[in-house]
Structure formats: C-alpha cells, structure tokens
Amino acid sequence: MPGLEAILLVGGQGTRLRPLTLGTPKPLLPTAGVPFLAHQLARARSFGVRRIVFATSYKASMFEPVFGDGAAFGLSLEYITEQTPLGTGGAIRNAAEALTSGPDDPVLILNGDILSGHDIGEQVSLHRSREAAVTLHLTEVDDPTRFGCVPTDESGRVTAFLEKTPNPVTNRINAGCYVFTRSVIDSIPSGEVVSVERETFPGLIESGQLVLGYATRTYWLDVGTPAAFVQGSRDLVLGRLASPALPGPTGEYLALDGARISPEAKVQGGTTVGARCVVEAGASVVGSVLSDDSVIEAGASVIDAVVGQGARVCAGTVVRDAVIGDGAIVGPGNELQNGVRIWPGVELPERALRYSSDV
After folding, report:
1. 191 phi and psi, to 5 degrees?
2. Are 37 and 112 in contact (CB under 8 A)?
3. DSSP label at residue 210
4. Which residue from 263, 268, 275, 299 has the least number of CB within 10 angstroms?
5. Cβ–Cβ < 8 Å for 179, 107
C-alpha cells in the first residue's frame, strides 16, 4: 500500500482527562515515554502510510512543534486547523482539502485517542477488494452497553448504527478507525458540523452504499479517562501492545534519560519513570506514569496513578488511582485514591486528606 494517505482526528479537548489536558492536548500526553501520537504514527508507518493530515482544533499550534514535517517518522505531515469545531465528519471533510489521493483511492481515518493492535493493512485490503464506500474497524467488547453497537450481516455489511442500549444486539462496537473511499469524503457537506456516526454512516447505509465491518479481537483501548490512559501506558511498557515508538525495551518499568531510582525503591507493573525523575529509597511505584522532573519521596506509595511534571509526592503518602497535576505538591501522610484529581500547582498540607482513621 505505498502512498496510502491518512487523516488523524486530534481536535478534541480531552475534558475527561483534566487536569492533564489543561495545558496539553490529549494526543500529546506522554505515554510510555513519548507523546501518545508517536505510537499511532509509528504503527501507521509500519502499514505503509506515508502521508498524514492532522485535523486539529484544541491547542492546534502545539502539534507541529512536536512532530514537524514528519521526517523523523518517515512520514510527510500536514496540519489543518478547524476555526470552529465541526464534529467528526466536518473535521474529516475539512482535512480532506490537503489530501492528494484520487476519488477512488482509500483514505485511512484514525482517532487520536485510540490504541489498537489490529492489522490496518488487512482492513484496507478488505475495503479495496469489496469496493466499499467505508470500511469500519469493529472490536468485540465484554460490555457493549457502554458503547453504541454495530451489527453486520453474514457478508460483513453493516446494517445499522445503534445508540447505547441496555440490551445490545451484538458485542461489536465502532473502534474508531475507518477506511473511506476519497469520493465519499468529498460528499460530506463542507464547512458544516457533521457527525459520521450519527449522520454520514447511517446515511450511506440508507442509500444502499456498502459500509463494511472489519471485526477483530486484537488489543484495543480508548484512552479517554485517567484510568485508561494509565492502562495504555502500562500495556505499552509491559509489551502487551507492541509499538515501534517505545523508547526502550519492554519490562517492569521504562526509565527515561536522567531518571534516578534508588536501589531500595520498588518500581514495577509497567511504570514509566520520566526524564530526571527521582524515586527515593523505600518508595513503591506500581503501574503508574511519573512525568518528567517529578519526585517520589522515601516511603511514598504510587499505584495506578499519574504524577504530573515537576510534581512531588512527599514521604509516607499513598497515591492510588489518582491524578496529580503538574507542579503540585502532596504533603507527607496524605492518602489520595478513588479517582481524585489534584489541580496543577496545588500544595496539599501534611495529612490534609485521609481515607483511613489511623492517627
């Protein structure tokens, strides 16, 4: 598939990930040691994608300084910004102005918050061989009630797009990676707010065009929440999903340049230890993301959590399933858990927040 083009949807505000996304768009958050999108770009490149158009909106100016013209990834990158958010369909149509492919060519559409291990090449080949209008990646989940589900007939043709329901007809859901025939993108109204899920796909199905489902049971994760973001980073470090962009070997932890981990500290479970991070003696860090320049003091415990850039977790504090914003200081003897989020720059005094009743 030489010369395959892609559009990468990266316009969302990432509200579910605040405070991490207050200063950084979700697709640029450090994930297993590199910006999240680095994993997507490297995977796309491995399947023959050579040119990617970024559809940006929120904090649009931050993307190009990170990825430049794409040469470091063996890609050619373009950046198109929506002045006002146009929805998924509107964003795809807007970005298509920068495509070079012809009307019959396939165009890959990627969402900037999905980690997927599926075979993109196979999805594109299916699309081409069946001459589909759109081919959607579908993934099977254990609990489809949390998602809209996508039933198909025995030939793989998508028959409907169903909203969330307590009694789903299938456990297959829209996995957020599409192959469009270019002319179908061009038929989306220009400059209007359009949802592919609620308007474009149902409209194509109603008009009798071929919308195909490519269903897999490979690794798939939407990293839209703090818990899922931590899981994605952890899975990449542990090697549960292979990524050509991982900046080191897989294992119990990944330590970036200048990180200092005491030999008496315990760091495991797919933790990322950011550049110039300090983990002191007696500290325990499991399955977490420690951002650059953060400090975990002696005897502190950090589990399934994100510690922001330059933040400090003081001695004897427990941080579990929590997010500590950039530059925040969590004083000694605190207990943070159950999804609590500390905003950037906040300083929590000693023993300010406790869950247990011990003195």
Report:
1. 75, 10
2. yes
3. -
4. 263
5. yes
Asked, as a colleague might, if the bond just before 19 is cis with ω within 30 of 0, I would say yes
Q: In this structure, which amino acid lies at residue 305? A: A
Q: How far apart are CA 121 and CA 227, in angstroms?
A: 30
| Contacts with 233 (C-beta within 8 Å, 6 or more apart), sequence order | 31, 32, 270, 272, 289
Phi-psi category of 43—alpha, beta or left, where left has phi over 0 and alpha has psi -120 to 50?
alpha
Q: Give Dmax (Cα) for the chain.
A: 70
Classified as helix, coil or strand, 260 is strand
User: Which residues lie below 8 Å from residue 152, measured CB to CB, with a gap of 6+?
Assistant: 138, 158, 159, 170, 172, 212, 213, 215
Per-residue pLDDT, 145: 83
Residues above pLDDT 70, as percent of the chain: 99
User: Please, are residues 229 and 27 in contact by the beta-carbon 8 Å criterion?
Assistant: no
Contacts of 129 (CB under 8 A, 6+ apart): none
- Cα separation, 359 vs 351, whole angstroms: 10
Residue whose token pair is 């990170």: 66
Backbone angles phi, psi at 179, to 5 degrees: -115, 120
Each residue's pLDDT tens digit, 134-167: 999 999 888 888 887 899 999 999 998 887 777 8
Q: Hey, is 307 helix, strand or coil? A: strand
At 277, which amino acid appears?
C
Nearest residue to 150 via CA among 128, 134, 127, 129: 134
The pair of three-digit structure tokens given for residue 359, joined into one six-digit string: 């003195």
Note the pLDDT tens digit of each residue in 231-260: 999 999 999 999 999 999 999 999 999 999
- pLDDT tens profile 5-17: 999 998 877 788 8
Specify which residues 56 forms β-bridges with: 10, 81
pLDDT band at 2 (very low <50, low <70, confident <90, very high): low
